[in-house]
Amino acid sequence: MKNIFVFIIFFFLACGCKEKFNTNIPSPSTGYLVVEGFISSGQDATTITLTRSVKLYDSVNIVPEQNAIVNIESETNQLFPLNETASGVYTSAILTLNSNEKYRLQIKTQDNKDYVSDFVAVRRTPDIDTLSWTRENGGVKIYVNTHDAQNNTRYYRWDYEETWEFHSTYYS
Predict the structure, then answer these.
(1) Would you list the DSSP string of 16-49?
(2) What is the pLDDT of residues 117-162, one digit of tens each?
(3) CA torsion sign, 139 to 143 to 144 to 148?
């Protein structure tokens, strides 16, 4: 009898805690334009990914924004086009941008809506001062230190390519 009473209480608690979540956030039927990436002035191409947001309860994860016209524009109206290399992914050639000018991103979507960012100065990433690592929780944490002598920029984004090399204890 005691077990049945405990089971009934557990059943009502488990069922009573589940509630459907509905948002009242208005969203256009096409979703909001999501722009991911940054303008690179160095040894890499600029890659911008354009997608559309989806409703919270939709089963579709990512909706790419295809056939857009994407350009990098300088203050002197010089244009650097980005080509669609994959669905919603736009890539430029390797750019050497003038550090005395400012640049912005221009996007014209397939439904003829125009989006432009603010003009921003070109930032040169300084050399790395130190690079170190520590082993933590079965993984590796990497530390990169650098500095900007003019103290204009305090945060940088670093990417790395993960490669592994295994050495067997015994020869085969």
Answers:
(1) HT-----------TT--EEEEEE---SSSEEEEE
(2) 999 988 877 888 999 999 988 888 888 888 888 877 777 777 778 7
(3) positive
Q: Which of 74, 125, 79 is nearest to 101 (CA)?
A: 74
E strand or H helix at 9, and its extent?
Answer: helix 2-16
Q: Taking Cα atoms as reference points, which of 150, 113, 120, 109 lies closest to residue 39?
A: 120
Q: Which residue has the tokens 């208005």?
A: 26
Residue with tokens 């990433």: 125
From its phi and psi, is residue 77 left (phi > 0), alpha (psi between -120 and 50) or beta? left
Q: How far apart are CA 31 and CA 38, in angstroms?
A: 22
